């Protein structure tokens, strides 16, 4: 599997999915504008080798989640990293449950991190992989 290295510019405050959505989907919501709540990134040369980190929005603050280290970021610091993300968690603007959705997305990032760590440690033990 080949890692796609194309960079994508994403405005973390406003993503309009209207051009990609069907008419039925657009009719079901009040807006096609979304806000990025979390970004998962992969650092490494290939899709099978490297390290996963995540950026998560908590209100107006951003956090960089990297293994057991969590670092606070400003929204400006989070923007350049958004171009390297491969998974973006979006919440529709104006959604009444946006705060709850953001909390759930943030919790999900911690769960994914823990699962990835456990799987990675298990794979390394079984396969005795060399570092990338």
Structure, described:
By secondary structure, the chain is α+β, with helices and mostly antiparallel strands. It has one domain (15-127). The chain has 3 helices and 6 strands. Strands 1, 2, 3, 4, 5 and 6 form a 6-stranded antiparallel β-sheet that branches. A hairpin with a 2-residue loop joins strand 3 (49-58) and strand 4 (61-66). The model is unreliable at 126-130 (pLDDT under 50). It comes from Cafeteria roenbergensis. Residues 1-93 form the USP domain.
From the structure above, extract its key features.
Peptidase_C19_UCH, USP, Papain-like_cys_pep_sf, cysteine-type deubiquitinase activity, USP domain-containing protein, alpha+beta, globular, 33% helix, 132 residues
What is the structure about, briefly put?
33% of the residues lie in helices and 34% in strands. The protein is of the alpha+beta class and 132 residues long.
* Low-pLDDT residue spans: 126-130
Assembly classification: single chain
SSE string, helix = H, strand = E?
A: EHEEEEHEH
Radius of gyration: 17 Å
Which percent band covers the strand fraction? 25-35%
Q: Tally the structural domains.
A: 1
Mean pLDDT: 74
What coarse outline follows from CA principal-axis ratios? globular
How far the N terminus sits from the C terminus, by CA atoms, comes to 16 Å
Helicity, as a percent range:
25-40%
Q: Would you count the extended β strands for me?
A: 6
Structural class: alpha+beta
Main sheet specs: 6 strands, antiparallel
Number of helices: 3
């Amino acid at each position: 599997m080949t890692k796609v290295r194309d960079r994508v510019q994403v405005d973390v405050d406003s993503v309009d999915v209207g051009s990609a959505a069907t008419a039925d989907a657009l009719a079901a919501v009040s807006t096609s504008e979304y806000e990025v709540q979390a970004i998962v990134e992969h650092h490494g040369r290939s899709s099978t080798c490297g390290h996963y980190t995540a950026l998560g929005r908590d209100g107006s603050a951003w956090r960089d989640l990297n293994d057991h280290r969590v670092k606070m970021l400003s929204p400006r610091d989070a923007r350049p990293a958004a171009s390297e993300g491969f998974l973006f968690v979006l919440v529709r603007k104006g959604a009444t449950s946006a705060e709850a959705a953001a909390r759930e997305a943030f919790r999900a990032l911690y769960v994914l991190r823990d699962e990835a760590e456990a799987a990675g440690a298990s794979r390394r033990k079984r396969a005795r992989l060399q570092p990338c």
